Amino acid sequence: MSGEARIRIAVQKSGRLSEKSLELVKSCGIDFNVDPRVLMCGASNFPLDFLFVRDDDIPTYVADGVADIGIVGRNELDESGITLPVVRDLGFAGCRLSIAVKRGDDYDGLSWLEGKRIATSYPRILGRVLSEAGVTAELVRVSGSVEITPSIGIADCICDIVSTGTTLRMNGLVEVEAVYKSTAVMVARPDLEADVGLEAVLSRLLLRMDTVSAARKKKYILFNLPADKVDDAARIVGGMKSPTVTHLLDEGWVSVQSVVAEDRFWSVFEDLKAIGAEGILVMPIEKMSQ
Ligand code: ATP
Ligand code: ZN
Known about the structure:
The chain has 290 residues and is of the alpha/beta class. It folds into three domains: 7-93 and 184-215, Periplasmic binding protein-like II (D-Maltodextrin-Binding Protein, domain 2), CATH 3.40.190.10; 95-182, Periplasmic binding protein-like II (D-Maltodextrin-Binding Protein, domain 2), CATH 3.40.190; 218-284, Alpha-Beta Plaits, CATH 3.30.70.120. It has helices at residues 18-27, 58-64, 74-80, 123-133, 166-170, 196-216, 230-237, 265-274; strands at residues 7-12, 40-42, 48-53, 69-73, 86-89, 95-102, 117-120, 138-141, 157-162, 173-182, 184-188, 218-226, 244-247, 253-261, 278-284. Strand 7, helix 4 (123-133) and strand 8 (138-141) form a beta-alpha-beta unit. The longest helix is centred in the C-terminal third of the chain and has 21 residues, at 196-216. Bound molecules: adenosine-5'-triphosphate and zinc ion (ZN).
């Protein structure tokens, strides 16, 4: 279509968010070729262009309209101090910001931090956490290698992103309290709604994302069952519209098909076995629309 609006999405060029961000777009049936040497690339079968940047810059670019939407860690967004509409929580790149203290310190809660020097790359988020807890501390802003600061004497403890805790241990620190949790989010520029063409493209993209993500949370289940147990099975499978029931040639048996939430799957499976279900087949669902 000529003159069709194209939406520009800012994604991290290289880092923990990059692969998953591109995978998400791909899972929506959108084709593109990424050339690592270039800053931008366009999708071939959907009106979407990528802008590859450092994650720290994503909130600013989206706020300034350099990009229309972006994928960024909630931690970076909150730390930037920029307020943007979060259109979806994407669930990946989960991490936590934790307080870590020197091994042997008698940490007993946030009040322990009163008057201490805390090194962090997230002074804004930590500042908010401390003020909510009524604690006053000195925040030492560092941009990297936060975990070495207590051993070189420039901080008493730290607040940093923790994944495995190995780096902390190597520096004689222990994680004592998680104060903030983050996942990747999709943000949009605040005035996007005013652009009818772009708003329509964003809605198409979100519908595709929601369809894929709804499918991932469900499993398709198919099993044989004594016909007199159908009501029990419907109760067990629950939550959904009534299951599809087909009569089998074998007198007294039916075949049942339904959709089950992934997180309930094993309890449903065991309950179905208990009422005599046989030949249980479970299949992934590729796309699903309510
Ligand atoms: P850039 O070069 O783009 O500035 P970066 O080094 O600041 O990259 P990454 O380390 O790639 O950033 O992390 C990007 C985001 O991934 C973080 O802001 C956070 O939301 C998320 N994340 C998930 N797990 C971790 C982790 N273990 N350590 C750091 N960030 C993590
Ligand atoms: Zn960064």
